TrEMBL record, chain B:
Chain segments annotated as transmembrane: 51-74, 95-123, 129-153
Name the record gives this protein: Rod shape-determining protein MreD
Record carries keyword Protein transport: no
Family: Belongs to the MreD family.
Keyword Transmembrane helix in record: yes
GO biological process assignments: regulation of cell shape
One GO location term (cellular component): plasma membrane
Compartments, record wording: Cell membrane
Membrane topology of the entry: Multi-pass membrane protein
Keyword annotations of the record: Cell membrane, Cell shape, Membrane, Transmembrane, Transmembrane helix
């Protein structure tokens, strides 16, 4: 029976493994910036990746087009009906907005969760090559004033946040990543909870630490709470699919189906503006 | 010459892996082509070279994806090394042997990932990890073996992986 490794190789291996584990700890997401080598490589390969992905996307479009034709006509009719319905709702919402504005003025209430500043649209140029993490590389970086911790959204809802930036690319940590945590509330009952990713492949999210006495309804909407986190308030995230008691018995966990289809996402919106949090506490005596 | 060929194949694979491979996700998982190349190479060339190429490929992937540097490198090095140990013991011309080797090596690589995640303090429920990631990915990788098998079989005699110096 031959030995698996000689002593000399074992020492070498241990040093290598130790060094690599050390490197992993240093390069964990949340570090302030990428190493120059990484930055350079990412910036160099970005156009190439963008090209490949673009070719792939259009090729896929052409291949599935004939199959989708029949389906499209039916879908088109449904969509038209839905658009009419939504248009009505938008008018209604516009009305509410104006009313809200008037009432705010009456109350002299500071609107503190408007985003002060700009947003940039970025296209996704690469995805995490593995299955464990949910990260995208997008085509905007320091040159477009994207910084670490900028919130990333799409018209459908919350996508994630920026964790690393090079000059022309940024790495986005999706909410489905197990390393992601977002402060959220249930829109109906205003119950706070923490939104965690399970594993990026699964495409579902968990809203943990909900009070056990809280009545949770299926289909209830989850939005960001803006409390103690880098995410602005009121960004829609998803809907409650199911819920169960946590093993501790003190809390409930709700399984959330996100609004964003992360596998089909092509463009995202990065909020580069400064997020303003309310800085003054309400004075005593003016409790509602 | 052979080294260059393998490196170029790896680079192309890596670009595909990070871009268009996402289109063929099934149930949220995608195969790991880079791991497949590492496994095949190790099965042909033995453990030393298998481990070396695994480490190199993984390191390139880490640097490219901007994640933990060393995460893929360690996992792929381990798989490359262990597959390489089987190089002299198993019959190479049978596709079923290759199926088995790929499946086991993929599971092993994912388990190393999982252990590294624990070291890094990222919590994924073991049940989820096994059912939604480890086994599906291993199956998916195994399904892709026939595509590479012919190339692999031929290249042993002449072609991409042969020893011939230019």
């Amino acid at each position: 029976m031959r030995r698996l490794v000689s002593a000399r190789n074992l020492v070498f291996l241990l040093i290598l493994v130790g060094f690599t584990v050390f490197a992993m700890h240093i390069t964990a997401p949340g570090r302030s910036n990428l190493t120059p080598i990484e930055s350079m490589l990412k910036d160099t390969l970005a156009p190439l990746q963008k090209g490949i992905l673009h070719l792939g996307t259009s090729a896929r479009g052409w291949i599935v087009f004939p199959f989708k034709m029949a389906f499209y006509s039916r879908e088109n009719k449904q969509l038209k009906e839905e658009v009419d319905k939504l248009k009505g709702q938008v008018r209604q919402i516009k009305e509410y907005e104006l009313e809200n504005e008037r009432l705010r003025k009456l109350l002299d209430y500071e609107n503190d969760n408007k985003l002060q500043g700009a947003a940039v649209v970025a296209s996704i140029i690469a995805r995490d090559p593995g299955n464990w993490f949910g990260t995208f590389t997008v085509s905007r970086g320091l040159a477009d004033s994207v910084k670490v911790d900028c919130t990333v959204t799409s018209p459908a809802g919350l996508v994630g946040r920026v964790i690393a930036v090079s000059n022309h690319t940024a790495e986005v940590l999706l909410v489905t990543d197990p390393r992601s945590g977002v402060g959220c509330i249930l829109q109906g009952s205003r119950t706070p909870g923490i939104l965690e990713g399970v594993a990026s492949g699964s495409g579902t999210l968990n809203l943990i630490h909900l009070p056990v006495a809280q009545d949770i309804k299926k289909g209830e909407v989850v939005i960001t709470s803006g409390v103690g986190s880098i995410f602005p308030k009121d960004i829609p995230v998803g809907e409650v699919e199911s819920f169960y008691k946590e093993s501790s018995g003190l809390f409930k966990t709700a399984v959330i189906k996100p609004y964003v289809d992360f596998n089909r996402l092509e463009e995202v919106i990065i909020l580069t503006g400064k997020v303003q949090f309310p800085e003054k506490l309400p004075a005593e005596g003016d409790n509602p | 010459m052979r080294v260059f060929t393998v490196l170029i194949i790896l680079l192309i694979t890596m670009l595909i892996q990070s871009t268009v491979l996402g289109f063929i996700r099934v149930g949220g998982v995608q195969p790991d082509l880079v791991l497949l190349i590492v496994i095949l190479n190790a099965f042909l060339r033995g453990s030393k070279e298998g481990a070396f190429l695994g480490f190199l490929a993984g390191l390139c992937q880490d640097v490219l994806s901007g994640n933990y540097i060393g995460f893929n490198a360690l996992a792929k090095m381990g798989s490359g090394y262990l597959v390489g140990l089987a190089e002299s013991k198993l019959f190479k011309d049978n596709i079923f042997v290759l199926f088995g080797v790929t499946f086991l090596a993929s599971v092993l690589c994912q388990i190393i990932y999982y252990l590294l995640l624990i070291i890094l303090g990222v919590m994924v429920t073991p049940f989820w990890a096994l059912l939604r990631i480890i086994l599906p990915v291993a199956f998916y990788n195994t399904l892709l073996v026939p595509i590479f098998f012919k190339l692999f079989y031929r290249s042993r005699i002449r072609g991409l992986f042969s020893e011939k110096e230019m």
